[in-house]
Write a structure and sequence with these properties.
alpha+beta; globular; 9 strands; 3 helices
């Protein structure tokens, strides 16, 4: 299955670039699917998350305080959870490559102590760990590069799964 990184113009800005992933089997990027899935039940939470992403892109960058870091199982996989508001339960799993580049995936409500205790969250985190490995390998091999201003990914954004 082919997948590719897509640059999210509406969320990216002078402080950071926000990307998502789209697969050939879906017409929607992971972030779009996340929003569509939870817009009825968690509308306010989604507004907060989208506002946070827009702020990351235009005002603050992807500062570590917005994320629960080290959510993945490998020490270097850069998978993290974006918080909306600390007392809320909706989580968006991301790959935080730097303070300037974030790749957003999917997520869901966290009603358990650990994501491993919820099959949906486990699937979402495992998917981001998988893509993180591909992206890190492509960066190491120079098939994918970070731009000189550190804000964008350059090269072939196609991720073959």
């Amino acid at each position: 299955m082919k997948s590719k990184l897509v640059y999210l113009t509406n969320l990216s800005g002078k402080k950071a670039s926000v990307y998502s992933i789209i697969t050939e089997e879906s017409q929607y990027a992971f972030l779009d699917r996340f929003v569509m899935e939870y817009q009825k039940e968690f509308f306010q939470d989604l507004l907060s998350i989208m506002g946070r992403l827009k702020s990351i892109g235009n005002v603050t960058g992807a500062v570590s305080t917005y994320f629960k870091l080290d959510e993945g199982l490998e020490w270097d996989d850069q998978v993290c959870a974006l918080y909306d508001i600390p007392d809320k339960h909706l989580r968006l799993y991301c790959i935080r490559l730097s303070e300037q580049i974030v790749i957003v995936g999917g997520g869901g409500p966290k009603k358990v102590r650990a994501w491993q205790d919820d099959p949906k969250l486990t699937r979402e985190v495992n998917e981001m760990m998988h893509y993180s490995k591909i992206i890190r390998t492509r960066l190491k091999d120079n098939a994918l590069k970070i731009s000189l201003n550190r804000l964008k990914l350059e090269g072939d954004l196609l991720l073959i799964r």
